[in-house]
Design brief:
Ribosomal Protein S5, domain 2, four-stranded mixed beta sheet, 31% strand, 4 helices, 10 strands, alpha+beta, 196 residues, globular
Length: 196
């Protein structure tokens, strides 16, 4: 079973994540940041992951620590659930439209963290989620998930639509990359025999 459960507590946040890569999209998400809940729901539903996230953070200050730490813990859970990464497809990509917006996410579960993020935002915040932190979420996820993650909003006018397209694309790309390819016979998907 490719399941991971991570509990991380700091002076700023207390976060619990449970992730099943071979799920059906079932989700229970309560971070205290409504728009983050909405985006993580898209990752679960469109990635067909079973995902439970609870977070208590210092929202009396702002939402930064909660958003950042949720990404870090989700990345840890993804890395743990993948185990040795043998037999996985490894790479995945998805274009997702949301009304007038179009986003692309391409990723490689190579074990080597790297992030490229390109998006132009029209407003400083969506709900309690500063648009400046969307790129930071992707970067934090890439580092702790040990993946090469490229994300780009190609165009759009509405920030909600742009962000939604990005997170849906993230879910679909992760779904493709985490799939077990039976043709590999459980081998490491690399010409050098290792992913690190």
């Amino acid at each position: 079973m490719r399941i991971a459960e991570i509990h991380r507590t700091t002076n700023e946040t207390d976060i619990h994540v449970r992730l099943n890569l071979d799920g059906s999209g079932a989700h229970e998400i309560a971070t205290g940041v409504g728009f983050l809940d909405h985006m993580l729901t898209h990752v679960a539903v469109h990635g067909l992951f079973d995902l439970a996230v609870t977070a208590r953070g210092d929202l009396h200050i702002d939402s930064h620590h909660t958003i950042e730490d949720c990404a870090l813990v989700l990345g840890q859970a993804l890395d743990q659930a993948l185990g040795d990464r043998k037999g996985i497809a490894r790479m995945g990509a998805a274009y997702v439209p949301m009304d007038e917006a179009l986003a692309l996410v391409a990723l490689d579960l190579s074990g080597r963290p790297y992030n490229v993020f390109e998006a132009a935002w029209h407003t400083p915040v969506i709900g309690q989620f500063p648009t400046s932190l969307i790129g930071h979420f992707f970067e934090s996820l890439a580092v702790m998930g040990r993946m090469n993650l490229h994300a780009r909003v190609l165009y759009g006018r509405d920030d909600h639509h742009q962000a939604e397209a990005l997170f849906k694309a993230l879910g679909r790309a992760l779904d493709a990359a985490t799939q077990i390819d039976q043709r590999r016979g459980g081998s490491v998907p690399s010409t050098k025999g290792t992913l690190t």
